[in-house]
Amino acid sequence: MSNTAQTPVSSDAETSLLAMLSACRRRGLRAERDPGTDGGVVISHDPRVITLRLMANRWYRPAPDQTVRSVAVGYRGAEDAIARNLVTELMGRL
Predict the structure, then answer these.
(1) What integer is the mean pLDDT of 72-93?
(2) Closest by CA position to 86, among listed 38, 33, 31, 37
(3) Nearest Cα to 23, choosing from 73, 74, 81?
(4) E strands, 1-94, where?
(5) pLDDT tens across 3-57, in order?
(6) Most Cβ neighbours (<10 Å): which of 8, 48, 75, 83?
(7) Which CB contacts under 8 angstroms, 24+ apart, belong to 37-45?
């Protein structure tokens, strides 16, 4: 995920970004905007951290091998379902 071509976040994307932050926080995860990436969110439950980025109406995260590739985790509008999956991954419970 490169930061070379950042574009301003649209109002629809902003709504999705706020929905992701809210969905994660309601489930007890720490969620903040990624200051280095437009449309990015940093979600954590110490010591685990996941970075998501909204691109082309989908949420992406870095590939498990931490290469430059990204893996889609869900569509825009599915923030609650994505947050539920992150709780399981980060906290080891539902």
Answers:
(1) 92
(2) 31
(3) 81
(4) 30-33, 40-45, 48-55, 58-62, 70-75
(5) 444 545 578 899 999 999 999 999 999 999 999 888 899 999 988 999 999 999 9
(6) 83
(7) 37/1, 37/3, 37/6, 38/6, 38/7, 38/8, 38/9, 39/9, 39/13, 41/17, 43/86, 43/90, 44/90, 45/90, 45/91
pLDDT for the residue numbered 30: 96
Angle at 75 (CA atoms; ends 21, 2), nearest 5 degrees:
75
CB of 31 closer than 8 Å to CB of 43: yes
pTM: 0.82
Distance CA 28, CA 16 (A): 19
